[in-house]
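OP here, attaching both records as promised.
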Amino acid sequence: MGFRRKQIAGLTLVAAAVALATSLVNLTALVRFSVAETESRARFLAETLRHQASRVIRQTEPAELRSALTWDAALINYAEGIVGYSATTMYVAVTDRDGFALVHSNPLELGDKLTPAPSLESFVAKNPLAQLWELRQGHNVLEVAMPFDDGDGEPFGAVHVAISTLFLKEEIWNVVTQNVLLATSAVVAAFFASLFFANWLWAPIELLRRELGRFQPVDGEPPLDFQSESDVSRIAEFFASMSQRLDDQRSARENDASWLSTMLGGLSDAVLVFSNEGRVLSLNERAAELLGLGRDEIQGKLFADFFPEEHPVAEIVKTALEGDEPVGPVDKTIANGQRPVVYALSAQVLRDESGVSGVMVSARDMEKLSRLGSQLSYAQKLAALGKLTSGVAHEIKNPLNAMVIHVALLRERLKRASPETQASLDTLEKEIRRLDQVIQGFLRFTRPEDLQLTSVPLRELFDEVERLVSAEAKASGIEIETKVAEELPPVHGDRELLQQVFLNLVQNAEEAMPHGGRLHVEASRTEDGVEIVVADSGVGIEPEMLEKIFDLYVTTKKKGSGIGLSMVYRIVQLHGGEITVESEKGNGTRFTIHLPEMRA
């Protein structure tokens, strides 16, 4: 049998099974209903006949009950009429307590002893299939019997309504015949429906057969004609092989995507890769920060669903696709919910075998680049200054030492000199030592420090700094708030120098709040390190001083040396970090330090 014929036969069998099962359920329901209706009708007739017998009993003396029931015309007519009324009723009778017929629908049975028959109630209690089986066994009599008394509560006799199973079978058999015809019609209809649906289902398979016919058989195998299950098995094997190849290709693409994501993640610039339709295929964390969204929020989605056409990134993508050539770099200001930042945007057209496949956009933070340039220039200046100081310090230190010695000799020789002379010697010695301290600070700033690098937990460091300044802060009415993020990684640095950095910043903040205020110190984790913020509510810094606040000998304090913040900048730089300052006159100052975290 061919594959298609098996398909038709299978569908037909399923449909036939459903039709037969439905017919069987319907048949049993109809049988149950017919038998229940027959029993209900028999009970009604028996109840009516008993009511007529009770009427005669009420109107007759007890000694004359038998004759009165036997010759009551209304009772006899009713009993005979019941048989003609009900198609399934065989006879009705009224008997005395000994079972002799006082009234009978068949006059020939009058006065005879009535043979007891099985109860119709017990037949009704059986399941429909058992009822059908019993009806097929031949003629039988089932009855409904209702006793009645003589009016004084004493049992007198009973009313009997007998049902012929032959009559009941004829009535039910009509229903069975209709049900069988219906089931047969359903099976025939199922066959033609199966034929139709088999042809309908076969159409795409036939198309598949024609398409697969283009493939040459492997190793001399016969062509695929779908006449047997082996052809279907071969098709299954073919698609299994194709599925495996697709899985391999998908895995390769996922590996490529992972490699691309890793590569983009290592770039300092923001990079986005777009398809021709403007869908974001890939982006790094810098790009997500630029857009103000999470990578998972926008990756794989249309850029236009999140940003308008006027967005600088959307504009440069459109320009590159329309011109089919690279664009940029062009400076564009982008605001992602924070302050606007100037980026240098560039777009590179991507191509494959079919032509243009997408655009790669890169965005470089020009402000950050400017800061890096300033830091590089500053480092170069420090290097040049270090070379200069190595010679200058030697030339200055020797005369200073000689001057200190000679001031001491003069003091010995002029012990009896006037107070004015002694005061002049004190001033001379003080200024010589001050000049020596300036030179020592200058040397410390310009010469590289010998860093003692260890793992430095910032929470412990902040606790130590707060312990050192808490007494002075309390006396000045300054509230210190320290907030360190949970699971903050340690930094790799020199503990003493880092303590010097934060102590210097905290002390400067306290001096900026002579009448009290609030000092906030916070450390949080970033993508590639740790960010520390030291913010005060003090007097702030003049705008013209902000650009040179880290320069050597520049100070905003009357008695400041101008070395403290320069040393802070230098120490942060030695640790591979960055420091920035924001301030507004009268609204406090905020220093932000970024340090790399400790690597395992």
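Record two, same layout:
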Amino acid sequence: MSSPGAALPTGTAPESLTGALRRWIGGSVDAVSTRMIAIILLSSMPLALLSGLVSWHSYQAVSGYSSARAEAMARMFQERARQDLSQDNVFLNAVAHLDDLGDPQDCNRALRVALATQNGHTLDLGFYDAGGRLLCSAGEPVHDAGSGASMPQPSGAVVQRVSADGPDGRRTLVGVTRVGWSHDEIFGDFGHVGFLGRNRPVRAWLFRDDQAASPLCIDCGWIAPGSLPDLRAQAATGHGVAIAWHGESLATTRIGDGLDLLTVTEPTAEEARALSVFIMRVIGIVLILGVGLIAVAVWANRLVVTPLQELTGVVLHWRQAGDYEAREIRYMPTELRELSRAFTQATRSLARHENNLREAETKQALLIKEIHHRVKNNLQIIASLLNLQANRIRQPEARAEFASARDRVRALATLHRYLYSEGELQTLNMRSFLEELCGQLFQAIGEKEGRRIRLEIDASEMAMSTDQAVPLALVVTEAVSNAVKYAFPGGRAGKVRVVLAATSNGRARLAIEDDGVGIPAGRAETETGIRDGLGIQLIRGFARQLGAGLEVQEGWTENGGGTRYLLVFPLQPEAEAEDLEEADAGQWAGATARGGSTGA
């Protein structure tokens, strides 16, 4: 006995769990609602994927607006700054060729007048001679730096030089041009930004190497950003380069002469919500698909599965009770309604056929019972007639033949009674049948069973076809009759034993033996004085009909007497026995003819 804490056999729980899971999955997959959901899911999946891709591309496009706008702003500022520098260069050319610059006294006045008439982008002017000496200036003094070629560049400004021929050689006009505009120039109705920057936050700074950045808008109050990625290499290419940086978009480009422009744009409310909108769209698609699948499952269960279940219940009730009650099921589809009507007609027709079959079966049972009763009576009548005829014959040989024929007919009558008395055609209680059959043989021959000759029957109940039971009964009849008649002459005592048992591989073994003097010696002491050849011929013929070989052992006892018949034959099903019936009948007829030709 196992203890309460004993463990289950290894693998029992996982295997049972796996089997239950497989059965649950198989049952779920086989369900109509599951299959309909799978079909709708497969059909709607491309649309859902397409909607997701459209939402993703929309998100990508909206999220890229800020970077594209920063790059466009940077290029626009670059173009406007270069236009202003080009105009300032034209202005410097015009100033450099003024005649007033030749007079040192008029030079300063001419530069101040020229600076006053300029648009305000040029901050400082300086006029140098060929040796790099400052002749005159306007605005902040432009410090002498030799020839002016190595003059340091101010932050947010560009130094431009224009040369002109003078009386004492070539002279150079140096101008410091500020790159930048006012708020109105940038964001006004006629500003540089125009519709691109209107209502869209944008800022820009100018920077040169390690100098502090200066705002592009002079009066906007923009504060230069702190840490920024190093974009000088990209800006030096002259093309706008846009990147995302901490929620903003940065774009850089080169204005000229080492001056770079940094443009920063912030995402609009629409752009900031792009990711949230994309997530909400995906959630919406999933929710719509889920709600649709749930609705399909509910309505499929209500409109298809439930009518099918009710129809199945009606069919099961018909199988159990035999009464099919077709009723109108709510929400039943037309196809199922037609199926129910067709099944109703089929069950009614089947019920009529079943009633007809039952009536025919009852009649057939009565007819078969009457036929069996008549066959049994006719066999008994034939046996009685043979017995009466045998009693009227005086010749011992003829009387013995009639007696043998009578015993064979009685054997058939007994077998027929056992086969059909209770309607069982395949199973015989062989022990009681053989006891009655042998008892009849003893009585017919005039021997009292258990007195001089003892009878032993060792047989069990077994299934046997009627086509095998008949030759088996006749073999026993012939063998036992020969033993009782010839094995114990002169009043000798002895024993006749019949053994029938099933062996392996669906076979049976029949042994009929006696411990008498043996058939040849017994026949020699009878009054006929000749050998009965018909009996042994019939035994051989019936053995062939059984599909068995016949082995006759004479002198098998210790004293050298006795006769034993051994037969081992296959137990054939009823169908196989019917297939061999015609051939067996021919063998039986042939054996009878050969036996009859030998004489009694």
